[in-house]
Amino acid sequence: MAVAMVSCGSICGMCTSLKVIEKQPISSSVFFNGSLVLNPVQKLYITPKRLALSGSTIIPKASAATAVEGGSSQETTAVPTPKVIIDLDSDPDATVVEVTFGDRLGALLDTMNALKNLGLNVVKANVCLDSSGKHNTFVITKASTGRKVDDPELLEAIRLTIINNMMEYHPESSSRFAMGEAFGAFQPYQKIDVDIATHIHVYDDGPERSLLCVETADRPGLIVDLVKIITDININVESGEFDTEGLLAKAKFHVSYKGKALIKPLKQVLANSLQYFLRRPTTEDASF
């Protein structure tokens, strides 16, 4: 179901050399959709073990006093895979965020406070425990509108806030995050080859939309980048889910073109565009 979207602020990407990289913001009249109207670019400044956005979007520092409340105080040899799931499909009125890190997470009051400092309301929070660990779920809306979060830059800020808090108060998790290489306490336990890790598929999902599935190596700013590539070829993103699973990012987007499912040639154009962007080597201007 199409969701109305407000104009985005600006979010910036980052690189492991801790240099500033400017990202173009996204704006459209439909959720993740339409031609882009670029606003003045603001920059994201990265310092070790911190993520901070300048301008209207800020990733706040969490409170250390409540960081591991109720969590496990014992370290185990096997570090579980951390997961951050941002779901825009399951609730029509709110955005659902799920955080899992084995049985090591407590009530995550620090994360709830950090989300509130992003201008969000935590409408509901609950915890469930199963064989895969403790699942902390937050149902959030924008404080200013009471509606679900559908701004890709704010969604990325939410994701980075949660990951930042987890690495800050559970330092061992940085060995399982791709972003741990830049500002984590521990280096990632393995390197991901982006060419091997990247998989893109487009499936039919009824007469009015298609389902785009993307799996690739994770990095900051990925939600914004994916949406920009899709909307640059005039494909609408109606809703979706973005999962961070350790070193990998997995996205599922419901997409359409002029209210219809994508035809085969357009599916190929979309897949080729994403593959080119995600697999191309990064080159600094200073190398020329």
TrEMBL record:
Keywords of this entry: Repeat
InterPro entries, sorted: ACR1-12 (IPR040217), ACT-like_dom_sf (IPR045865), ACT_dom (IPR002912)
A GO CC annotation given for this chain: chloroplast thylakoid membrane
Positions in coiled-coil regions: none
ACT domain residues: 96-176
Record GO terms (molecular function): amino acid binding
Protein name (Swiss-Prot/TrEMBL): ACT domain-containing protein ACR
Function: Binds amino acids.
